[in-house]
Amino acid sequence: MNATGNPRSIGSMRRSWAKSEVLRPRLYSIAHLLSGSGANAVIMAVSTMIAARALGPGAYGILALVLTIGRLSERLLRFESWQPLIKFAAQPEVERDPARMSELMLYGLLLDIGSALLSAALTIAAGYLLGPVIHLSANDMPLVAIYAVAIALNIRGMPTAALRLNGQFRTIAYVQLLASLLRLGFVTLALIFKLDLLAFVIIWTIAQAIDSTIFFALGLRSLHQTNVPSPLRASVRGLGAKFPGFMGFAWSTNLSSTLRTLTQEADTLLVSAFAGSNAAGFYHIAKRIAKVAQQVGSMVQAVLYPDMAKMWARAQFEAFRKMVGRVQLALATVGLTILGTVWLFGDFLISFAFGDDFADAYPLLLTQLLAVVLIMHAAPSRSALLAMNKPRFVLVTALISTALFFAVTLLAVPRFGAIGANFGHIAFAAFTAVAMDFAWWRGSRAASLVQNDAALPGKL
């Protein structure tokens, strides 16, 4: 409504949008990320389709388990160092000092390297320990060891922080396409020449290693463009004393990430343990397709988190609340649109793309998307809480949600099969969304009220 009580005209809404200096530029960045990630997701889906058709349900199920063991091991130990890096880089004394910024980036890089090497070792150990439980034979263990090489080279935290701080979201969006195109070309050749499972594992390993190498080089270049000295030449002495609280924040985000990983990766292993590797293959296909929608929430967090951290640090509470609320509304619209489209056409598309042997993936995809829509809604809330310096609340929420996930999954999978894991995801996502919404809204509202009271005449 306008000042006279009449509904706002389309023209006035457009003028308001044109004047927006908060949300509009960020939505453009989100659009870039989604276009790149969307194209990448399509290419990955085609690669997955070719691999499934070439290998069949049995061998594809083994490929899915090998990849899952690697990703699970990596994410259990990986510190998402880009989150504390961005948080500490937003501090004025660091933001204005290139030398301190370089040392901060070195801190994150050392964390990345150590966790990557440990993750590779855990990948191999987990393969041997879990193999008999999840129906992997001794002959499959070399496949796990090969993929561990890609895990050891996956250094992403520091480069991600450098690119996001420099606003290079277009670079982040499109650089991943090179590795995906390379993987697509290789799997096409593997299909033509009828190569075996070993070839497909090598293809996935090489493509991920190339992606990680390029991404790291671009992160260093981004720092150079902002006149930040290379962290490779910074001193390692006294980093903990120079950035007190960094490791505490990193541990909190790492534990939160670990708990999310247990629900997002361990589920495939649980399905295999209870229902076999074929069911794990169907479940993995549904997850790969659903990930297209889930990336929307991840990309929104990637764009908004640096701005949220700065807004909160500068006490711009009203702008902070408006940004979070509007983006949540936009994500709800996108998520429901995707869910409706899959409900109408998903069955046909899966049979067309993967073949009738993989038709059982459709109900798994539909139920998984319901959980994804809730997670998409919670992504801005999580970014908001981290910007508000409340990683402990995020951690506690993740602990409770994870316990709820495993309780529901362990009860449902033996009874309902693979779809039971999706029931667990829905329970996890629903609790996460409600708890985080309540916390960020109450906290930001309280901060706004305190700020407004302090601004009133007569207040000290």
What is the gist of this entry?
The protein has 460 residues and is mainly alpha-helical. It has one domain (20-451). The chain is built from 17 helices and no strands.
The helix-and-strand class reads mainly alpha
Helical amount? over 70%
Give, in order, the helices and strands. HHHHHHHHHHHHHHHHH
N/C terminus separation: 37 Å
The fraction of residues assigned to DSSP E strands is under 5%
Shape: globular
Number of domains: 1
Specify the number of helices.
17
Query: Mean pLDDT, rounded to whole units?
Result: 84
What is the radius of gyration computed over CA atoms, rounded to a whole number of angstroms? 23 Å
Number of extended strands:
0
Largest sheet: none
The stretches of 5 or more residues where confidence is low (pLDDT under 50) are 1-10, 12-19
